[in-house]
Amino acid sequence: MADTHSRGSFADPHRATGSPAEQASNIVPLFADGALPDVTDLRLSEDDRRELVGWTIACAERLLPLFQSERPDDDRPRQALAAAEAFLRGELDIDAVREKAFACHEAARAAQDPSAVAAARVCGQAVAVAHLAGHSRQVPRHTARAFPGDRSRRDEELAWQRMNIPARFDAYVYDGD
After folding, report:
1. Helix pair angle (94-110, 76-88), 10° resolution
2. What is the pTM of this model?
3. Could you read off the pLDDT of 88-146 as tens digits, one per residue?
4. What is the C-alpha to C-alpha distance for residues 37 and 48, in angstroms, rounded to an integer?
5. 34-51: b or e for each residue (b if 16 or more CB lie within 10 Å)?
6. How far, in Å, are 35, 46, 100 from residue 89 at the CA level?
7. What is d(CA 177, CA 161) in angstroms, rounded to the nearest whole number?
8. Contact (Cβ atoms closer than 8 angstroms) between residue 18 and residue 7
9. How many helices (H) and strands (E) does the chain have?
10. Residue 104 and residue 138: Cα distance in Å, rounded?
11. Which residues pair with 5 in a beta bridge?
């Protein structure tokens, strides 16, 4: 019997996609080598981290304007995201990318507005996934802080993240703690 993974849940009924037959059975084959990431492993393989970095960059890019609106001349978060993309292309090693993640957190400390702080933190956590996959779990947490007083916008952004995460990492990021 082939390994399978259920799609969709009561908490997230919109996750189910695919053919009508897949939706009817609500199960699809697992990805890659047939195994989901171990939720207790904060490191994961470099291939897994690369896949997660792609998602975290996309999440961070959506929030970057919140930081830039307060600090338009501070390009540390943008440089960090560019470094993460270079890592994905094999042009930078993990240590170089980590330095850029630290710079994002310095930028967050320099910001005043809670939305700008949270956006810089999302960028820093997104980039840090190149080193340690567990940082991906912080992306939704800091995203939630990026919209104080705007529950609708917060929920919209968190839903976008959840709908766009590679399916095999859903439980790793959202249920891993």
Report:
1. 160
2. 0.79
3. 999 999 999 999 999 999 999 999 999 999 999 999 999 999 999 999 999 999 999 99
4. 8
5. eebbebeeeebeeebbbb
6. 25, 13, 16
7. 18
8. yes
9. 8, 2
10. 14
11. 28
